[in-house]
Fold this sequence. Notes:
Alpha-Beta Plaits; about 75% helix; mainly alpha; 3 strands; 2 domains
Amino acid sequence: MLDMDISEIVIRYKDTYKILRIVVLLSVIGILVVLIFAYLSSSIIIYSDVIHWVTDTALELVSMITFYIISKASRKIKWNIFALEALLVLIISVILFSFYLFMLIDTIKSYAESSYEPTTTNPFLALVTMFSGLLTFVMYIIERRAYQRLRTEILKVDTKHALIDLAIAIVASIGIVLTAYSRSFVIELTIVMLILYAALQSLIDLSKEAVKSMLGFEVDPNLKLRLISKLSEINREDIKIGEVELRKMGTFYVAKVNVYLDPKITIGEAHRLRKLINVLSKDVSELIYHVDVLFYPMKKYIRSKKKEGRRKQREKSSSKR
Ligand SMILES: [Zn+2]
């Protein structure tokens, strides 16, 4: 029964990976098409759209790698390699972003020289951002459908993101037409800042992931609390859940759970308990990738509780002084 649960989870991850692979593929098409039009038109709005596609794709790529790894469900993962991949994706995105910023500064400088003439002069360029929006909408439909089936957190986050990007694409398309007809660089720059803001959000998310995976941060306390409360369901007269540790490893979490057992509990029961703890942990978050379950005899639990009690009493008496 428990074995079935685990394989069901693995299938969910595998399917999530497949969806993310489609999303990354569509995003690469997005980058290429928009890049061609950016090059042909030299419109700073279209270049901004390119940079937004690039940062979003980088983020999707890291998610895709993550789900590829967890769908393999093998313990022999070289975490360093994963951190290196995330770092590499981040570095490439930052380099592209810097290039773009230089270009943006250049454009702003050239406004002054060209008596504030905008770079976007062709209203038909709105078709390019509308294409971006259409592609984003297709991704939204795919991800929303997949989320209803798979219920993985990443797809929920991605569908929300796609909706925001769709709104940005619509505003950008209107902005292009307005800029082309009014020849106002203010409208152009406003649209550029809006797209830049969206791209910056993705870049921040990406750097957060990379930094976390390198440093192995202690986890957000909220998730740890949820894990502790979920695992406390197991507590019985002869089984006590002790200390729970949760660490960030790449995009995933690795947990360590101390369990205190009555000596009468058989090895077979302990084995099933270890599986149950793994399933419950994955239920709390799909990103809890591995759980180390350490068993101790119950005596030790009682002793550690007593010690804690004594320490608390000491703290109380010392604070009174
Ligand atoms: Zn975006």
